[in-house]
Amino acid sequence: MKILVCISKTPDTTAKIAFTDNNTKFAEAGVQWIINPYDEWYALVRAIELKEKDPSVVIHLITVGTADVEPIIRKALALGGDEAFRVNASSHDSFFISSQIAEIAKQGNYDLIFTGKETIDYNSSSVGGMVAELLDLPYISLATKFELNGATATVTREIEGGEEVVEASLPLVVSCQKGMAEQRIPNMKGIMGARTKPLKVSDPVNAEAPTSIISFETPPPKAGVKLIPADNPAELIRLLREEAKVI
Amino acid sequence: MPVLIFLDQSDNTIKKTTPEVITYGAKLAAQLGITAEGILLGTVSSDIAALGKYGVTKIHHVNDEKLNHPDGQVYTQIIAQAVDAIGAKVIVFSNNLHGKAIAPRLAAKLKAGLVSGAVALPDMSNGFVVKKTVFSGKAFANISVNTGIKIISVNPNAFQAEASGGAAEVVPFNATINAAKTKVVSVNKIKGEIPLSEAERVVSAGRGLKGPENWKMIEELASVLHAATACSRAVADAGWRPHHEHVGQTGLAIAPNLYMAIAISGAIQHLAGVNRSKVIVVINKDPEAPFFKAADYGIVGDAFEVVPKLIEAAKAL
Ligand SMILES: Cc1cc2nc3c(=O)[nH]c(=O)nc-3n(C[C@H](O)[C@H](O)[C@H](O)COP(=O)(O)OP(=O)(O)OC[C@H]3O[C@@H](n4cnc5c(N)ncnc54)[C@H](O)[C@@H]3O)c2cc1C
Fold first, then answer.
1. How close, in Å, is residue B143 to chain A by CA atoms?
2. Would the pLDDT of B190 be above 90?
């Protein structure tokens, strides 16, 4: 059993979101980088759990990024991957990134490909679906539980107002969110071991980027809070109806 | 060369986000000087033609109950056939759960540029540029789509549905339908609950409520306001509320018309998932709680005293 886990680098959740170069670039100065939480907490940890149950499982990690993502991929290896791939390219277009992942996936014959639900920076929620289409595989999005029984996966996913359980045969692409697994902290043995795990760097395959970022904007600041005295909550209800017109 | 709008349904019912995306698609078609048409897969119990009032002139319907449960792969194949048959230039989805499962696949299949999470109509003064949310609602990016065929998935509740036109013409669409490789074995819908992602009003509560037993008043307030309930991550992690109620940067991102945050501190990761709400109300006993900086209305007070009074006042409306 071979699992490929897609790993992305994102700014820390507390990072200040600002832009430079006439609002065309994210201001990276002073920003702490982390593994995209959905990739780490849910996709990677669930893969590790599957390996703990069945030691014959092999976990490969893939990231598309320039050399500065290496600390992130080493951290992911410290949590538990066996080896990693880095496609040496920088892009914010989901199709370009998916084309690179699909290429590596074709060479590795994976039974399972896990992604996070979305990245917390570009929020596109697209890579899983695109990789699945490029490989002509089924894709189960926004999974909250994943169980394996031989070559059949039983996956619980979120639907509007509830959840549903879906069955599919491997190979399969799954995007992972809360519920799949619990966040873990890498231990010393993992951190030491990660230094010597293979990290293979390759050049990107040719793929066009159908979209490009023109500029960024930050939302206008709020006008300020209107405080209502605690002994008169009825006034709040009146304002919500008559002024804000939301109830 | 029309705009093609994916008309989302589940349980034989048209989804609440569908009129929103039709309105978006119809305005976009008007900008381009072309028509807006819809594609609907599966059987639906309501009057489909009536969706014309939001601006679609024609609806291509694959009226087959095998399609009542969307399989991303099968749906993609059928929509691609329709795009081909009618020569659609732009395809519009809701960026809801079905949209997230289908739009990226279709984009890869058609080699079409995709903007997911759009919040405005394209700016065509210089190419085709669509504004979307990034950094979990903390910013927007303007994305240029450079391909002939373009796909846009519109954030739920970012665009108001507007009814104006008449009925649409409904035409059957003959598609090749392949067997699905995924099988739905069970569906568990929480009866009577308003789905959080579609809710116009949300009442949310945090760790300040001290324990799950204190959620009765939150549920009651939500019920009188016709609101869905949500919670902070601290609350979902503690197991006081189910995971699907967790909103924020690592939970669900929502943008309702009203978001009422009760005993939630307003940590940056929480705000990231709710700051696009149109009106934010904060109830917190700590006047220094960071949430007040992001709020439109606030009450500094003890939730256990304020919420019962709010319920009374809302009932009296
Ligand atoms: C990587 C990362 C991702 C995260 N993602 C998310 C996310 O997606 N969503 C999220 O919510 N959090 C997220 N968090 C956690 C976040 O940082 C906060 O810890 C969390 O939101 C706190 O929840 P809370 O406001 O309910 O609890 P607390 O911070 O404990 O705040 C409780 C509040 O209740 C008030 N209070 C107490 N008693 C009363 C009373 N009787 N009446 C009125 N008010 C009262 C207090 O004044 C306080 O402001 C994330 C954190 C990290 C590090």
1. 5
2. no
Task: Considering chain B, tell me which residue range(s) the CATH 3.40.50.620 domain(s) occupy.
Answer: 3-172
* Cβ-proximal residues to B16 (8 Å cutoff; 6+ apart), any chain: B198
Which CATH number fits the domain B196-316, given the four candidates 3.90.76.10, 3.20.20.210, 3.40.50.1220, 3.40.50.720?
3.40.50.1220
Q: What is the pLDDT of residues B115-147, one digit of tens each?
A: 999 999 999 999 999 999 999 999 999 999 999
Instruction: List the beta bridge partners of residue A176.
Output: A116, A143
What is the position in ligand 1's atom list of the atom closest to the CA of B250? 8
Contact B279 A246 (CB under 8 A): yes
Mean predicted confidence (pLDDT) in B214-240:
97
Output the CA–CA distances (angstroms, integers) from residue B168 to B7, B18, B22, B69, B207, in the order listed: 13, 14, 12, 24, 49
Work out the number of other CB atoms within 10 angstroms of the CB of residue B170.
18
pLDDT of A221? 85
Query: How many residue pairs bridge chain A and chain B with CB atoms within 8 Å of each other?
Result: 275
The pLDDT of residue A160 is 84
How far away, in angstroms, is B206 Cα from ligand 1 center? 6
pLDDT at B291: 98
The top-level CATH class assigned to B3-172 is alpha beta
Q: Does pLDDT of B235 surpass 80? A: yes
Distance B277 CA to ligand 1 centre (A): 18
pLDDT tens readout for residues A78-120:
999 999 999 999 999 999 999 999 999 999 999 999 999 999 9
Percent of chain B beyond pLDDT 70? 99
Average pLDDT over residues A180-203: 94
CB-based contact A159 B197, cutoff 8 Å:
no
pLDDT bin (cut points 50, 70, 90) of residue B51 is very high
CA distance A67 to A64: 10
Q: How far is CA A167 from CA A62, B96, B180, in A?
A: 26, 22, 11
Query: Any idea of the CA torsion for A227, A230, A235, A239, to the nearest 10 degrees?
Result: 30
Residue with tokens 């029984």: A149
Model-level pTM?
0.95
Shortest CB distance from B113 goes to which of A11, A168, A210?
A: A210
> Structural domain boundaries of chain A?
2-219
- Amino acid at residue number A232: N
Does the domain formed by A2-219 have CATH 3.10.20.90? no
Query: Is a pLDDT exceeding 80 seen at residue B192?
Result: no
- The answer for A 195-214 residues in CB contact with B (under 8 A) is 208-214
Q: Which of B27, B5, B29 is nearest to B17 (CA)?
A: B5
Kindly list the residues from chain A whose CB atom is less than 8 angstroms away from the CB atom of residue B317: 237, 241, 247
Nearest to B96 among A160, A226, A234 (CB): A160
> Cis ω on the peptide bond leading into residue A171 (within 30° of 0)?
yes
